[in-house]
Here is the input.
Amino acid sequence: VGKREITATAFSPDGSRIAACDPNGVVKVWTLSPFAEIASWTADPEPRTLVFLGNDRIAIDSSVAPARMVSIWELASTPRLVQLLPPHRGPFVTLAAGGSALVTSDDERLRLWDRDGALVAESRAAHARFDRLVFTPTAIVGAAIDSRLFVFERETLVPRAIFAAHNSSIATLALDPKSTRIASAGDSDQRVHEWSLPPGGALVHTPGIDGAWFGDRLAVASPTGLAFYRADGTPDGRLDLALGDRATITAAGDRLLAHGAHHQYVIDRARTVRALAETTALVPSRDGRYALADD
Here is the structure.
């Protein structure tokens, strides 16, 4: 991808690979240890999202006027197009992967696909478009653009529960490592909620801008720093950091990346903070998140 704009990034499920794409549809994949490029190809232009299907396939949402197209690629010495899914309607498509399954959302419906691109299930029951989707072992959780939180059966997409989660659109969904709780962060209401799975109501309500699971702790970003919470919702310390009103945090393996308007930090599991220079290369994606990149 070089010096061009990055439109999307994704980590493989085992954390050993990272993929990125640019507006021209150039996709690159690197191993992280050692850091080395292992694949590069050109997909369709204007990709907005990419996700790993397992560790050896990637799904990409691209623009092919007048619709959005989703393609599935197999990683090999020469990456191979496995399947081009039927067109998706509307200006945006939301993708999420859970193991070898892929779920997509457009202006009309929610659809579930297998790793070969075969349709498994679809749902129009929600009557909502989803900006965020997350897989759990038994369910798919979706953040609708009208601020509601939906929980669907993982295999059938039958709705199980609907929550009135926030007073604004939902900016982030994050699943904890044990897949028993999910965190949602409001876009403008500056609230982070923690929900039990299966659905049991909100467990944590705390002021914040963004949230991410870091090991078995929920990290919540605010303009003045990070607060940490145990799985039962009890506080577990905080770090005072100058993040500002546009703070985002991303968990990447043993590191937590915190990015503010003028400062960026890396936090390890011992909560040791390392400030990064503003010139340090971070890979951004359009959902506002960042990953460390090689210069």
